[in-house]
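Chains adopt folds. We examine one example:
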Amino acid sequence: MGGASDGQDSREFLAAIRVGDVCGGTVTEVTRSLVMVTLDGFSARPLGTVGRLDLSWRQSAAAAVEVGRRITAEVTAIDLDEGRARLSMAATENPELWAFLTSLHPGQILSGTVAAIERFGVFVALDDGPGHPVFPGVGFVTVPELSWRRFEAASDVVQVGQRVACEFLYFDTWNGEARLSLRATQPDPFEAFAEGMTVGRTLDGQVTKLAPFGVFVQVADGIEGLVHLEELAWTPVEAPEDAVRVGDEVTVVVTDIDRERRRLTLSRRQVSPDRR
């Protein structure tokens, strides 16, 4: 009975808390990935968790979260089913940054300057709002959100110091940054292509990449389709290089247009004999 009562009490306690509230508590356990916090007002068990990325940015992790230490943190998420409130100490240390990020709305266009290019994405120093205490910029664009077109490296799309306008996607509370999309501000070439395209249409294109399962063929500017291995030749082949090489000009037939996934499927085997 005690366990059921405790569960109900914890749900009621957490239900009264809102994202954005500032809570006080005491660190009761420190693991490799989480810090457990007993929140003021509920001493039965620890309900607060602080992830490693949500610890203090001004102190070392050891100094910030030793067992028995009193902390103040902002609630960033509540999970009633798990009986946990996710907390961020970094949020309370940087109230101006958090206030700016929570004021943003999905779809809002933000301008700024590319501050750094990393393997995993691009940091953007935004014109409005404060700087970030840890990262080169408050804005961040992941690699897939840089461009609709295929590219090898982020530096193929943008350069440090370049001015950009991006669409705000969401507030990343783990890193205290604005997730942005550069490609969302640009026309999607696949949509325009799909508007005038039909299944069964024959197209000419160039092989751009070989893969174990087939080859990619560019059939228009910024538009690539996949020819599966079984559709690559008129007689079975074991590997793509048995039929084509990168740079080869080929004729293909459109077999599927998936607008939702932005996928174009092609066939070389189904090309009519007079076009081979």
